[in-house]
Design goal:
The complex is a heterodimer of chains A (about 450) and B (about 400). Chain A has about 450 residues and is of the alpha/beta class. Chain A has 21 helices and twelve strands. Chain A has two domains: about 325 residues, Rossmann fold; about 90 residues, formyl-coa transferase, domain 3 (2-Layer Sandwich), CATH 3.30.1540.10. In chain A, helix 10 crosses helix 11. The longest helix of chain B has 25 residues. The chains are: A alpha/beta (about 450), B alpha/beta (about 400).
């Protein structure tokens, strides 16, 4: 959250660059000691900056992002939210393809108005650069010298071909951590295969079980909704990057991490994934073998979901329903019995749920400690009192999109609260900041590089 | 053997089910020492039951579900209803860098194991609480599992067919919550490395899902649009769907984003006429006529083998991959080449397949070192070596059902 002064400045001028904040982003290298003694901080601002230092988990950590669309940018977005200084590299002219992705206000595409881009790149700085040109490559290397982490999502072998592979980069920055995110990993027979989120969701086994529960398998499996199969690998990658960063804090050394999106998704479905290997069982989206009574059930005004793996939870559900006669039957006795009769029981549950609203079932069920909840839409989430109370949404401002509410973070770190530092960068917005102030290029040089299509 | 990146970090956990245990399992893959506190009084249901196969296990050490979610860990038993067990738990937390718990909000403080209480012993402790809806707010005491987190987090609503109810979700939801918790703990460890200070982290599973649909929520903020289910379709590009192949319940996913990919698809289908068809000439047109395209492609794929389709389409530059079941995953040559499935030798289960850590580090490997712990397997090491208790004392507390 912005403090009132910053908030006012943002709303007055759209973009304001505060010195203390710039300092965070311009701090070269990751030094986990000595930051408070930095001579570059003027005394008057020293106190502020010490406070900032303590309030941001990844203060002083610098990240170069050479990625597009969702996975890589989501990985670095979480780091930016935690206080890391993230410099996003975009191709000159067109920028990150995510800029062309909806949602747009009024559904009118505009490169600075993509909600997807906005969400994934808030709190980052953005520059344009083409590392495939000789001058672009030189600048890329100069940047690499000043950062702790590079996250890249180029096709396997592409960085090596450009002379920007890990082997090249670690000779100029031995502390560098490089995370390579690719659809199928850097090795193996499919390494050169393309994979969109759709394909990854299907080839990782996640889609095979969806939509659950489907009464038959005549219709195709479906991918997880939205871009989630692209967000997921970004999150999984971030865990490895932070572990490597922790290690670097001890050893001073960096390393290269290879992560396949396919494997990231398999790892998150690890229990279901081994059922065939261990038991010869192929679970399907009809859920026949393992169905417990409950699951998604229709109600008067939508759907609820209920799951009762423990006996007391089943009893709570029955109490909620006024202990119907059938609940005393032997086939309701224990979970195994109930699972064998799941279809019959679900019909009986549905008779009751369809006569009640989701809100009523939800509140009364939870008051009895029954694991039950409504299927919530984006609108429900935005209006949720729970999320409001927890400060899940923040009011932020973007120079072109204007004021917006955005989701923040799933974790509340007492010493590193989520903070809005800057809106997602306009295309090439930080070129001067990075090229001139950080790397020492002159403004005329910048113009020349621009005309050559390097930046 | 090379060390993991978190070598030297110790974490004590009071977690059960899936979302808690897998968070610390990830940190264990990365080299942290993980001590799981559990009890015979109330067994972790992952030890007793498989939601995936429907199997119930006779003893506490027979579950392949527990094994897969608790690799590399150590286990101690403490009956937390006993004050002396609480004292031991506090001592254990005192020699740990991190504590994680996923009990219902309020339970740990009531037991005397809340952050404030343990911090008195260990001022620089990192403490993460994972719960369904978080530690504050009107719904803080609400209980849940993967299916309810999915429903509350908005992912159920947008997953499934257009004409079908929202989707139920299983383990992958818990494991997303777990991965978020692991990431948060790591951020706090990095911060502590710099500042020397610990902190408290309040993590909500509901929100760990909601953050994955940020763009869907922004569509509502911008346009008041409530996005709903659209099967395998994309919001912008087509063809983008899943098509039936030969064989029982076999499918292939194909996504075409560019004109070049479209031409690659047409040539692979041996339908150069479609390249010239004005209905499909531009991405917007293809999106408009996607149902017609899906019909044409389905007709072409239905008598072909999924893997052959993948090979021919990928060689034409088209993103295509078969839909894999648990059997498909296990038999896939690429997945085998990447070493995704690992077999561990478990003293009770025997040979057990588990899933390897999802990353390859060049210097400090993430790895599976051992099977999951038997219940209370490390009582002697933890209470004896770490906390300095004598064997006699440990035996006595075992008999008195404190270490139990």
């Amino acid at each position: 959250m912005l403090n009132p002064v910053r908030k006012a400045l943002f709303s007055c001028f759209g973009r304001v660059h505060l010195d203390s904040r710039q300092h965070i982003f311009l701090k070269p290298g990751y030094h986990f000691t000595k930051i408070t003694e930095d001579k570059a901080i003027p005394t008057s601002k020293k106190e502020d900056s010490t406070k900032e230092l303590n309030e941001r988990a990844l203060y002083g950590v610098t990240v170069l992002e050479y990625c597009s669309m969702v996975s890589g940018p989501y990985c670095t977005k979480i780091m930016a939210d935690l206080g890391a200084g993230v410099i996003k590299i975009e191709p000159p002219v067109d920028g990150d393809p995510a800029r062309k992705m909806p949602p747009f206000p009024g559904d009118s595409p505009h490169p600075e108005k993509s909600g997807l881009f906005f969400y994934l790149n808030t709190n980052k700085q953005g520059i344009t650069l083409d590392p495939e040109t000789p001058e672009g490559k030189k600048i890329f290397l100069e940047l690499v010298k000043t950062v702790d982490i590079l996250v890249e999502d180029s096709p396997p072998g592409h960085m090596d071909k450009m002379g920007l592979g890990y082997k090249d980069l670690c000779t100029i920055n031995k502390g560098l951590i490089v995370m390579s995110i690719t659809p199928f990993g850097l090795t193996g027979p499919y390494r050169h295969y393309k994979g969109h989120a759709l394909n990854i969701s299907h080839v990782s086994g996640q889609a095979y079980l969806l939509p659950l529960i489907s009464p038959h398998s005549d219709r195709p499996p479906v991918k997880a909704g939205g871009h989630t199969s692209d967000y997921d690998p970004g999150l999984v990658a971030m865990v490895a990057v932070l572990a490597a960063l922790y290690r670097k804090g001890i050893s001073g050394r960096g390393q290269h991490i290879d992560m396949s999106k396919q494997q990231a998704l398999i790892s998150m479905q690890r229990v279901e994934s081994v059922t065939y290997a261990n038991s010869g069982i192929v679970m399907t989206r009809t859920g026949n073998r393992t169905r417990m009574p409950g699951g998604i059930l229709p109600c008067k005004d939508g759907h609820i979901v209920v799951i009762t793996p423990e006996d007391h939870q089943w009893k709570a559900l029955m109490t909620l329903m006024g202990n119907p006669e059938w609940s005393k039957e032997p086939w309701c006795r224990d979970m195994m019995a109930r699972s064998r009769h799941a279809e019959t029981i679900n019909k009986l549950l549905t008779e009751w749920t369809t006569r009640h609203t989701k809100e009523e079932i939800f509140r009364k069920g939870q008051a009895l400690s029954c694991p039950i909840s409504p299927c919530q839409s984006a609108e429900d989430l935005i209006n949720s009192e729970q999320l409001k109370t927890r400060g899940f949404f923040a009011d932020v401002n973007h120079p072109i999109l204007g004021p917006l509410k955005m989701p923040t973070s799933a974790s509340r770190l007492s010493e590193s609260p989520w903070r809005f530092e800057r809106p997602a960068p306009l295309l090439g917005e930080s070129n001067e900041e990075i090229y001139c102030e950080r790397l020492g290029y002159g403004k005329e040089e910048l113009e020349i590089l621009k005309s050559k299509g390097v930046i | 053997m090379k060390e993991g990146p978190l070598k030297g970090v110790r974490l004590t956990e009071f977690t059960s089910a899936w979302a808690g245990p897998y968070a610390t399992c990830l940190l264990g893959f990365l080299g942290a020492e993980i001590i799981k506190v559990e009890s015979r009084v109330r067994l972790d249901h992952a030890r007793t039951l498989s939601f995936s196969t429907g199997r119930q296990f006779a003893g506490p050490d027979e579950s392949e579900v527990f094994d897969n979610l608790n690799l590399n860990k150590k286990s101690v038993t403490l009956n937390l209803k006993e004050p002396r067990a609480i004292d031991l738990a506090i001592k254990l937390a005192g020699v740990s860098d991190v504590v994680m718990e996923n009990m219902r909000p309020g339970v740990m403080p009531r037991l005397g194991l809340g952050y404030e209480a343990i911090r008195e012993t260990k001022p620089d402790l990192i403490y993460l609480s994972s719960s369904a809806c978080g530690q504050k707010g009107p719904e803080k005491e609400y209980v849940g599992y993967a299916p309810t987190f999915a429903a509350m987090g908005g992912i159920s609503w947008i997953t499934g067919y257009e004409d079908w109810p929202p989707s139920n979700f299983m383990g992958a939801i818990d494991l997303r919550s777990a991965t978020t918790a692991a990431a948060s703990i790591l951020a706090a460890l990095v911060q502590k490395q710099r500042t020397g200070k610990g902190q408290y982290i309040d993590m909500a599973s509901q929100e760990s899902i909601a953050v994955l649909i940020g763009d869907v929520m922004l569509d509502y903020m911008m346009n008041q649009r409530i996005q709903t289910r659209r099967g395998n379709k994309d919001s912008r590009i087509a063809p983008h769907n899943c098509y039936r192949c030969s064989g029982e319940d076999k499918w292939i996913s194909i996504a075409v984003a560019t004109d070049r990919e479209w031409e690659g698809l047409c040539r692979t289908m041996d339908r150069p006429d479609l390249i010239r068809d004005i209905r499909f000439a531009a991405p917007e047109e293809r999106y408009k006529y996607q149902d017609e395209l899906d019909r044409i492609i389905s007709e072409w794929t239905r008598d072909k083998e999924g893997y052959e389709l993948m090979a021919s389409l990928q060689s034409a530059g088209v993103a295509a991959a078969p839909t894999l079941s648990s059997e498909g995953l296990f038999k896939d040559p690429h997945i085998r080449d990447r070493g995704v499935f690992l077999q561990v030798e478990h003293p009770v289960i025997g040979k057990d397949w588990v899933i390897a850590p999802p990353w390859r580090f060049s210097e400090t490997p993430a790895q599976v070192n051992r099977h999951s712990p038997l219940l209370g397997e490390h009582n002697e090491y933890v209470f004896g070596e770490l906390l300095g208790m004598s064997s006699v004392e440990i035996r006595r507390l075992e008999q008195e059902k404190v270490i139990y």
